[in-house]
Amino acid sequence: MRVLLIGSGGREHALAAGLIRDPQLEELHVAPGNPGIAQIATCHAINTDDNSAVISLAESLSIDLVVIGPEKPLVQGLSDELRAAGFPVFGPSQAAAQIEGSKDFAKQVMRDAGVPTARSFTCHNRDEVEKALDTFGAPYVVKHDGLAAGKGVVVTDDREVALEHALLSPLVVIEEFLDGPEVSLFGISDGKNILAMQPAQDFKRAFDGDLGPNTGGMGAYSPLPWAPDEIVEETLEQVLKPTIAEMAARGTPFVGLLYAGLALTTKGTRVIEFNARFGDPETEVLIPRLKTPLAQLLLKAATRDLKGHAPLEWSEESAVTVVLASEGYPTAPIAGEPIMGIHAIEGSEVFHAGTALDASNVSDGDILKSSGGRVLAITGMGADLTEARNKAYRVISGITLRGSHYRSDIALNASIAEKGN
Ligand code: AMP
Ligand code: GLY
Fold first, then answer.
1. CA of residue 265 to ligand 2 center, whole Å
2. Does the CB atom of residue 272 touch ligand 1 within 6 A?
3. Does residue 182's CB lie within 6 angstroms of at least one atom of ligand 1?
4. Which of 3, 59, 286, 353 is the most exposed place for a label (fewest CB within 10 A)?
5. What residues pair up with 89 in beta bridges, in sequence order?
6. Nearest residue by C-alpha to atom 5 in ligand 2
7. Counting ligands in written order, which one lies closest to the CA of residue 117?
């Protein structure tokens, strides 16, 4: 099988590492990829915002399956154009990707599918916004309707801040605050059937102790030893299956990865958000644990052939990933700094997220530099979370990147609780 993967982040590096473990994979091409991915696949420096450039590439390589990593090309209709050109695609159509692209659309789908979520109002003007804020009270949760690269959601006790954020967007969703731990649970869907992955937890705040601004994700771990045993089955039945059925009933079947961001509240599980693609950095802990061959699985989803598929198989090992971020991330990340000291040890993997090769350094050959906010995601694997953490932190502590920061408490509480049991 010849696979083309679209994207350039840590998620795509982890997916690439999973795809090449599949014995049926013959060739892996990635566009645009990054220097880490280039060590295990063939990278193509095309503009992936240009749908016709992607189609030309897929045609020239006789690709059997296209896997789309990030949300942007999905929302821009890349899947539709590839399917029209005859390629099996793992990634939803533009219409189905609205489940991530519009918070209001996602709320309508959940309402019609009977999926448990926060009560909400969709507001078009200041009057509606103020009424909604006062109905729910603090803490206020205000979400811009469209894609906002993680900057669209504000959770605050300050009514002025909430109002100001709401007025920045012509369409906002204001909803009740959900407390309780957050869990990310993904399903692989062929439009009709959906297979649940194992749960993971993401650390969204920039600094230790869940302090600082929201980020794309500073680390993750899986499995969750503290989570109720029935969480996967329950989410499959109450969230993933009804959502897939509703999307199909609307004539916009969801083929790809349905990401359910859940809050485990005292009143039960509630959906905080849906995404239309693999989460980052959750993928960096889930894919290393997945034993089911990934290329075959995604091809079956893309060709509407998951009916009767056996449940996914998982390694018993725990995985912890820690993100190394640039100075100033997430507010004003500084890129272009050299990265040194990447040495993976047995049971660890270093995924590149925001790196580039600087070819201007002629004497020593190319040198690796940071090129974005999240630079590397270092995954450790082990018999338990403590061992997995220790490996990830051992590798990250050897890496030099001026001004960089990482959280020191990824999976810490869960590993202490696990030891106590
Ligand atoms: P979203 O983009 O919808 O995932 O929101 C980003 C983050 O904001 C979530 O991961 C939560 O930490 C927080 N958040 C979103 N909605 C709520 C809510 N209703 N109650 C509490 N926190 C929320
Ligand atoms: N880890 C959060 C996300 O991928 O949206």
1. 20
2. yes
3. yes
4. 59
5. 66
6. 279
7. 1
Q: Whose CA is nearest to atom 3 of ligand 2?
A: 279
**Which bound ligand lies closest to the C-alpha atom of 153?**
1
| Ligand 1 site, residue 147, Cβ cutoff 6 A | no
CA of 280 to the centre of ligand 2 (A): 5
| pLDDT tens series, the chain, 421 aa | 999 999 999 999 999 999 999 999 999 999 999 999 999 999 999 999 999 999 999 999 999 999 999 999 999 999 999 999 999 999 999 999 999 999 999 999 999 999 999 999 999 999 999 999 999 999 999 999 988 776 788 999 999 999 999 999 999 999 999 999 999 999 999 999 999 999 999 999 999 999 998 899 999 999 999 999 899 999 999 999 999 999 999 999 999 999 999 999 999 999 999 999 999 999 999 999 999 999 999 999 999 999 999 999 999 999 999 999 999 999 999 999 999 999 999 999 999 999 999 877 656 667 999 999 999 999 999 999 999 999 999 999 999 999 999 999 999 999 999 988 6
Identify the CA nearest to 377 among candidates 337, 335, 334, 410: 410
Q: How far out from the chain centre does Cα 79 lie?
A: 18
pTM above 0.85, yes or no: yes
Q: Is the CB of 71 under 6 A from ligand 2?
A: no
Question: What is the architecture, at CATH level 2, of domain 120-175?
Answer: 2-Layer Sandwich (3.30)
2-90: CATH, from 3.40.50.20, 1.20.1250.20, 3.30.930.10, 3.90.226.10: 3.40.50.20
Q: Is the CB of 409 under 6 A from ligand 1?
A: no
Task: Say how many Å lie between the CA of residue 279 and the centre of ligand 2.
Answer: 4
Shortest-distance Cα residue to atom 15 of ligand 1: 272
Q: Whose CA is nearest to atom 4 of ligand 2?
A: 279
